């Protein structure tokens, strides 16, 4: 037996601990990103929100934002569209069913109050009205204009 193999065989074998198995849940990861992004955009608007902060809040990473949404713009559009759907659900759809114009206008306030109580917007919504204008923002403007047109 060579000296080298004798030394190697006399050392206790160091067993490496197995890396913990991380169970991936794509639906939960996507939902966490949406929840974090909704809060971040609500607080800071599109221009003020940072993908790194969204990923941190979602306990994920920026690569997952790009994987699930394609980037910040698409993520913002998804969040903005979801907010528009909430407005339709709580405010505009019920208003359309009310025949009395005075009652319909009153529902604007009642529905908005109910919307604000929804946990999906617990961090506010003001940042969504900080819609960026200028080159490259056409998709934001189209979505917002469509929402405003439906609201009339």
Question: Can you walk through the features of this model?
Answer:
- Helices cover 67% and strands 0% of the residues.
- The chain has seven helices and no strands.
- It is elongated and about 75 Å long.
- 16% of the residues are buried.
Q: Overall mean pLDDT score? A: 85
Class per helix and strand makeup: mainly alpha
Q: Helix-strand pattern, N to C?
A: HHHHHHH
The major sheet is characterized as: none
For the secondary structure, the number of strands is 0
Tally of contiguous helical segments: 7
> pLDDT under 50 segments (min length 5)?
none
- C-alpha Rg, in Å? 25 Å
Helix content: 55-70%
Portion in strands: under 5%
Q: Which geometry do the CA atoms define?
A: elongated
Our measurement of the CA-to-CA distance between the termini, rounded to an integer number of angstroms, reads 90 Å
Key terms:
single chain; 152 residues; mainly alpha; 7 helices; 67% helix
